[in-house]
């Protein structure tokens, strides 16, 4: 089995983000690393984040830093990754790519302890960069310019210190003196040797300054001083003319200013009043904002509170450090302050936010300062505050993030054409169920009912130079309705259009006159109101019409074509007639090219399954240029011109192209390239769009022409970053559409469906899925479908949180406390007022502020029944007594007394470490009542371990309780044990069954294949895996095959060899005799690994599903970082050969950007086996043309054929 | 095998041990070995962000806190070292 791996939704979580002027000029961009993806984002003028460029690097990006050479206008990006190399990138604005400026190898690849890549620090003046590892190694590279002003990089200088753990690195701003880097270090060598533990307790973190002597080209340890043992992060303090230099050391509960030869200045970080005393406050992200005369820092704690840190300084001397409460936003992995007054917060989990500064925290608020730091016997006196609503920031945009994707199911609950993906995302109060549909999201602007069933709609301008449309013209079977567009849309009768007949086409003709084509003729309405009417000869009527701004072709019944042109005076003149062999199915004329008199091509579709291209040139007017036969009669034709691009943000440069699109009656869209000179057709591609014949319309999206295809669902064909995309729109079936432009909506679409007129806009381009969000209460763990009623049952649980009632009580209390001013600080008055209006208007939303922290042994959990159609929760059971739900399944016991029941595995007082031997688990059995909408507890059975897996099996319930697999039957008061097997190595985390086989996944030891023998009432293992795999997800593929994913980011398939499988099935003892002869405590048979692939991200869910109606199934997976991918089996050997060769050439010709070898990355833990990386293959169109041709030559194909293959492969999956 | 070769191999080993932390030797104790494995594991967790997030979700902590906890655990990953026997 060979699989094609394709990422359908790129990772949406962010590891780190930096900001700078990467494209040069004034605009600021944000570079974000999303695991293996490097993105460049920019907030546009409307304050929306736009992705400018995105590239997959096939390696784990761990750190990013930006630097700028003195006097330069542009920032470079340094990337620390798992490649054992330092890579410097420059964003090339013209080509919209990252150019690799330098790549220097320094060590082994992989995320290792002593191989640098974890930390990056740059000298603020851009003269050197330090790259560090968790332990021991630090390397310094000197950056400079050569005579032609290109960036140069030196060989590395070592600043190693063995037995030393490094917590953080940063550059120290010391103007143009020798560059200095600061590090928080901890030496463990003595602690390792001292059995008494004294050395360990005395182990002290140090702040060490490394100086790069540019003259001697040497790095030395300049200064090292003990620092608070909770130190975890360093922030550069501006130096030289801008500030006092030195560093801010962020430690647990403190921020300390340190510099060589300067006494420490320390202040406590204010604590939330409701924080348990055992918990510290740790800074997780920081940003600095520098303006001409001032600078300040924003630091964010692990609870999401943002503080503004300011330094009072006089020259180099810092007299006071102040930490003032700023605002609270969701916890971020990085925050970036942009020059335009934006704050970009890359959330750890959930949607990222773009905030605008309303103020910079000048108003009084809770503040702690170094000057009033109080030291008591128990340590430093804490300062308390209460989070409040946003005061300084206001959120203006958010970027959706699925991270972490906890569970996912592909189901078609809404009975739509394609299935929906139901995914559980997020954590704690920001958890949600997200329903993903493939396709672009749209915004509906207006829906209005019309009198009767409209058949077609057009929009028309009054003058070619008008910006907005003047009329919407709607045609019915026997009438035409004209609506004028203004402040409102209303019917008019003075437009000159004939309203007693249906219309076939309405358009602007010439510069300023209107044309209406109706079955009996053409009505030409001149700008001054004169009307010219052309009538059809005899009793023939017009059946089809093709037109652009200057040309009109009509087809009469019987097959006669008449061609008109608008002359200089705007008069429509008949030019040519031509008799075709039979009735015509459709017509289209290409738009008039810029600066020309006429378009050269007319496309004619006939019922004999052909499409012809006819010339419209005066010399060979209506002569056939080329013929194409298609699989079914064409219904609609459309020429789509793709303008030439010279790169930039449009993506790769490509010449202008003309495509002929035909919508066929069998629902297929057929796309062909038209030679712009000869009219020859070549390079055709087809795609099935839906059950109805697609009707094609030209619209404009982002100022470029695009194609709307209306089949049983609407599709949009458009160019995005240099690629043609054909994507469904998440909207209902439409009959007819036209572009729409008014001052409220610059680029909309007006359409008719049923008896309604709909106006909508297309939102974000380039996305694969659009989502509907249903918020949840706690971190969702798993969910199951109640198959009969199509309801979802979700289990949610959180550690270290309070139950809903406790939270409510605490909140009330805290508002009351706020009322009497117990804020432990001098700003009580202010807070009092603040708290008061919060109480009235907007109680603190948990989504923003997070749940208050409880002691770590406290758990909260709930079971929810949710109706996905209405997105309403029909039942929510909050578990009591510190119980948390871990597993869920539906079960039908063989005595059908209750029908489908719900089994939920819970644990009371779960503790991960130290492992408790005696945990109390329960299996709850619930009955669905009120048509499945509600749950009723039948009984609760106590078990001796953690029930992490539950599954129905032959009318009974299988439960994995720690290392025990047990079969239960339903009793009146509790579950009854029937059979068990205790031979599993660690903890059972998944159970799947098929016929009499049971596939058990162990948390650490991969799959075990079991059988149940009913007559002997015995469960036994007959095969297992020989590789230790830390399973995170599993899925049953077929009788002998299981798909699994491990915690290190691998997806693999195991299969029981065919002969073994048959032997076991035929053996009357079912392989039991053999089982008794098992060696080395293992099962007698071993499964083979047949597929292996490193995804590079922890896969949390696997499922076999098909995203296209009638398509073959693929294995879909979701990951912690919020990406969704698919593995699709190849059906032909030729395809396997083709794609493996393409992959090989891509590896050679286009090595990944960050220096990781592609093959090594995909084989990071186990050698990749029988999986072709579609993500790498899909980078083919981004290669320069000559490289594309070179690879294509080696494959004996043309680049266009390769593109077609790639498109086909993708279309099989989604 | 000549004496000089043996010396050579030894010196090569020493070089490796100095260069690559965690390279074993004949007298490696169980404790030292485990400590090494644990430190390597923690470093790997910190380096692989998805794995770090996975732990953070399990423990309901922020990723930053989880990273700090793992770094802290690198000091004494397996508790105190055992008493030396030979002294």
Automatic annotation (TrEMBL), chain A:
Domain RSE1/DDB1/CPSF1 first beta-propeller, first and last residues per copy: 14-367
Acidic residues biased stretches: 834-845
GO molecular function ontology, one term from the record: nucleic acid binding
Pfam families referenced in this protein's UniProt entry, alphabetically: Beta-prop_RSE1_1st, Beta-prop_RSE1_2nd, CPSF_A
Domain RSE1/DDB1/CPSF1 C-terminal: 861-1180
Coiled-coil spans in chain: none
Keywords, comma-separated and alphabetical: Nucleus
Cellular localization per UniProt: Nucleus
GO CC aspect terms: nucleus
Domain called RSE1/DDB1/CPSF1 second beta-propeller: residue spans: 442-762
InterPro entries: Beta-prop_RSE1/DDB1/CPSF1_1st (IPR018846), Beta-prop_RSE1/DDB1/CPSF1_2nd (IPR058543), RSE1/DDB1/CFT1 (IPR050358), RSE1/DDB1/CPSF1_C (IPR004871)
GO biological processes: microgametogenesis; plant ovule development; pollen germination
Segments for region (Disordered): 817-848
Domain of life of the organism encoding this protein: Eukaryota
Role summary: Subunit of the splicing factor SF3B required for 'A' complex assembly formed by the stable binding of U2 snRNP to the branchpoint sequence (BPS) in pre-mRNA. Sequence independent binding of SF3A/SF3B complex upstream of the branch site is essential, it may anchor U2 snRNP to the pre-mRNA. May also be involved in the assembly of the 'E' complex. Also belongs to the minor U12-dependent spliceosome, which is involved in the splicing of rare class of nuclear pre-mRNA intron.
The family this protein is said to belong to: Belongs to the RSE1 family.
Assembly notes: Identified in the spliceosome C complex. Component of the U11/U12 snRNPs that are part of the U12-type spliceosome. Component of splicing factor SF3B complex.
Name of protein: Quinoprotein amine dehydrogenase beta chain-like
Lineage: Eukaryota, Viridiplantae, Streptophyta, Embryophyta, Tracheophyta
Automatic annotation (TrEMBL), chain B:
One GO biological process term: mRNA splicing, via spliceosome
UniProt cross-references to InterPro entries, sorted A to Z: SF3b5/RDS3-10, Splicing_factor_3B_subunit_5
GO cellular component: precatalytic spliceosome; U2 snRNP
The family this protein is said to belong to: Belongs to the SF3B5 family.
Record-given protein name: Splicing factor 3B subunit 5/RDS3 complex subunit 10
Source organism (scientific name): Arabidopsis thaliana x Arabidopsis arenosa
């Amino acid at each position: 089995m060979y699989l094609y791996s394709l990422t359908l939704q790129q990772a949406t979580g962010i590891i780190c983000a930096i900001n700078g002027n990467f494209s040069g000029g004034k605009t600021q961009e944000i570079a974000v690393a999303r695991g293996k993806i490097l993105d460049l984002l920019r907030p546009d003028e409307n304050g929306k984040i736009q992705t400018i460029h995105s590239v997959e690097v096939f390696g784990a990006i761990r750190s990013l830093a930006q630097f700028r050479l003195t006097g330069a206008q542009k920032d470079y990006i340094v990337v620390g990754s798992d490649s054992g190399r330092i890579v410097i990138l420059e964003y090339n604005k013209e080509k919209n790519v990252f150019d690799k400026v330098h790549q220097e190898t320094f060590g082994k690849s992989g995320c290792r302890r002593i191989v640098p890549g974890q930390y990056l620090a740059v000298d603020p003046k851009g003269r050197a960069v330090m790259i560090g590892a968790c332990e021991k190694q630090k390397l310094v590279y000197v950056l400079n310019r050569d005579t032609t002003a290109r960036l140069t990089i030196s060989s590395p200088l070592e600043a190693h210190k063995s037995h030393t753990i490094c917590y953080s690195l940063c550059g120290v701003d010391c103007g143009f003196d020798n560059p200095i880097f600061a590090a928080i270090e901890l030496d463990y060598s003595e602690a390792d040797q001292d059995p008494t533990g004294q050395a360990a307790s005395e182990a002290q973190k140090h702040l060490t300054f490394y100086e790069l002597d540019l003259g001697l080209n040497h790095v030395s340890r300049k200064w090292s001083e003990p620092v608070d043992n909770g130190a975890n992060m360093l922030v550069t303090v501006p130096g030289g003319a801008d500030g006092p230099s030195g560093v801010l050391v962020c430690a647990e509960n403190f921020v300390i200013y340190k510099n060589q030869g300067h006494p420490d200045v320390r202040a406590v970080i204010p604590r939330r009043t409701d924080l348990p005393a055992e918990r510290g406050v740790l800074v997780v992200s920081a940003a600095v904002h520098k303006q001409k005369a001032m600078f300040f820092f924003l630091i964010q704690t692990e609870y999401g509170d943002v503080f503004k840190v300011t330094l009072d300084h006089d020259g180099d001397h810092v007299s006071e450090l102040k930490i003032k409460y700023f605002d609270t936003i969701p916890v971020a992995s990085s925050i970036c302050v942009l020059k335009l007054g934006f704050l970009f917060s890359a959330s750890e989990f959930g949607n990222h936010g773009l905030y605008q500064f309303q103020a910079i925290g000048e108003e009084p608020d809770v503040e702690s300062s170094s000057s009033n730091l109080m030291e008591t016997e128990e340590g430093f006196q804490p300062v308390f505050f209460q989070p409040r609503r946003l005061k300084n920031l206001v959120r203006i945009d958010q970027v959706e993030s699925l991270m972490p994707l906890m569970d996912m199911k592909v189901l078609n609950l809404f009975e739509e054409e394609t299935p929906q993906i139901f995914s559980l995302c997020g954590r704690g109060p920001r958890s949600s169920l997200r329903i993903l549909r493939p396709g672009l999201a749209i915004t509906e602007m207006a829906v209005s009912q019309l009198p009767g069933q409209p058949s077609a709609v057009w929009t028309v301008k009054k003058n070619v130079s008008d910006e907005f449309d003047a009329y919407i013209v709607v045609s019915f079977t026997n009438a035409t309705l004209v609506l004028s567009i203004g402040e409102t849309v209303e019917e008019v009768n003075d437009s000159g259009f004939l309203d007693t007949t249906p219309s076939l086409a309405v358009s602007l003709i010439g510069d300023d006159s209107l044309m209406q084509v109706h079955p009996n003729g053409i009505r030409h309405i001149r700008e001054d109101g004169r009307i010219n009417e052309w009538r059809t000869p005899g009793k023939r009527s017009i059946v089809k019409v093709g037109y652009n701004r200057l040309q009109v072709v009509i087809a009469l019944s019987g097959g006669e074509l008449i061609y008109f042109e608008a002359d200089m005076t705007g008069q429509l003149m008949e030019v040519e007639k031509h008799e075709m062999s039979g009735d015509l199915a459709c017509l289209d004329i290409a738009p008039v090219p810029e600066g020309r008199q006429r378009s050269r091509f007319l496309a004619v579709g006939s019922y004999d399954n052909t499409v012809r291209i006819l010339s419209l040139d005066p010399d060979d007017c209506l002569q056939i240029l080329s013929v194409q036969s298609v699989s079914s009669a064409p219904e609609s034709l459309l020429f789509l011109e793709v303008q030439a691009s010279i790169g930039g943000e449009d993506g790769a440069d490509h010449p202008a192209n003309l495509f002929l699109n035909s919508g066929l009656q069998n629902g297929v869209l057929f796309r062909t390239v038209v030679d712009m000179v000869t009219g020859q057709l070549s390079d055709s591609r087809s795609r099935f769009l839906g059950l109805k014949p697609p009707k094609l319309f030209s619209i404009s999206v982002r100022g470029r022409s695009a194609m709307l295809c209306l089949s049983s669902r609407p599709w949009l064909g458009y160019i995005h970053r240099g690629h043609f995309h054909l994507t469904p729109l998440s909207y209902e079936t439409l009959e007819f559409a036209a572009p729409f432009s008014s001052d409220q909506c610059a680029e909309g679409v007006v359409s008719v469906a049923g008896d309604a007129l709909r106006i909508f806009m297309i939102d974000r381009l380039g996305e694969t899925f659009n989502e509907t969000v249903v918020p949840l209460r706690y971190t969702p763990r798993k969910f199951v479908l109640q198959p009969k009623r199509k309801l979802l049952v979700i289990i949610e649980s959180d550690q270290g949180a309070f139950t809903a009632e406790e939270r409510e009580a605490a909140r009330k209390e805290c508002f009351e406390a706020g009322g009497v001013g117990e804020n432990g600080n001098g700003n009580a008055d202010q807070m009092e007022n603040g708290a008061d209006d919060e109480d009235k208007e907007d109680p603190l939303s948990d989504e923003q502020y997070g749940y208050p922290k409880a002691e770590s042994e406290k758990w909260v959990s709930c079971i929810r029944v949710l109706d996905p159609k209405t997105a309403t929760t029909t039942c929510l059971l909050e578990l009591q007594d510190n119980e948390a739900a871990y597993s869920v399944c539906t079960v039908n016991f063989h005595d059908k007394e209750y029908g489908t029941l719900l089994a939920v595995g819970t644990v009371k007082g779960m503790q991960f470490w130290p492992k408790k031997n005696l945990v109390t688990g329960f299996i709850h059995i619930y009955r669905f009542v009120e048509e499945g909408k509600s749950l009723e507890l039948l009984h609760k059975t106590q078990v001796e371990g953690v029930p992490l897996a539950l599954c129905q099996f032959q009318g009974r319930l299988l439960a994995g309780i720690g290392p025990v697999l047990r079969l239960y039957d339903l009793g009146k008061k509790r579950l009854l044990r029937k059979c068990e097997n205790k031979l599993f190595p660690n903890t059972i985390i998944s159970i799947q069954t098929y016929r009499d086989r049971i596939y058990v996944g162990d948390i650490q030891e991969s799959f075990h294949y079991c059988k149940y023998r009913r007559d002997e009432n015995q469960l036994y293992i007959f095969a297992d895996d020989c590789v230790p795999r830390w399973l995170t997800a599993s899925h049953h593929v077929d009788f002998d095959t299981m798909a699994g994913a491990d915690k290190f980011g691998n997806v693999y398939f195991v299969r029981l060899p065919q002969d073994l499988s048959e032997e076991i099935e035929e053996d009357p003892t079912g392989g039991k005799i053999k089982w008794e002869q098992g060696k080395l405590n293992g099962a007698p048979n071993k499964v083979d690994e047949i597929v292996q692939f490193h995804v590079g991200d922890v896969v949390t869910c696997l499922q076999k599903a098909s995203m296209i109606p009638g398509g073959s199934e693929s294995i879909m997976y979701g990951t912690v970082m919020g990406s969704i991918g698919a593995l699709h089996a190849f059906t032909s050997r030729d395809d396997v050969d083709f794609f493996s060769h393409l992959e090989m050439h891509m590896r050679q010709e286009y090595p990944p950007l960050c220096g990781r070898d592609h093959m090594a990355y995909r084989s990071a833990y186990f050698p990749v086996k029988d999986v072709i990386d579609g993500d790498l293959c899909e980078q083919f169109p981004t290669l320069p043309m000559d490289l594309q041709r070179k690879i294509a030559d080696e494959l004996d194909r043309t680049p266009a054929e390769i593109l077609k293959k790639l498109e086909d492969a993708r279309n099989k999956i989604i | 095998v000549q004496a000089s070769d043996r010396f050579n191999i030894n010196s090569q080993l020493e070089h490796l041990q100095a260069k690559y932390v965690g390279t074993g030797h004949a007298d490696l104790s169980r404790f030292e070995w485990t400590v090494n494995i644990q430190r390597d594991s923690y470093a790997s967790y910190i380096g692989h962000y998805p794995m770090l997030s996975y732990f953070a979700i399990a423990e309901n902590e922020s990723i930053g806190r989880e990273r700090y906890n793992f770094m802290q655990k690198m000091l004494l990953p397996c508790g105190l070292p055992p008493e030396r026997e030979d002294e």
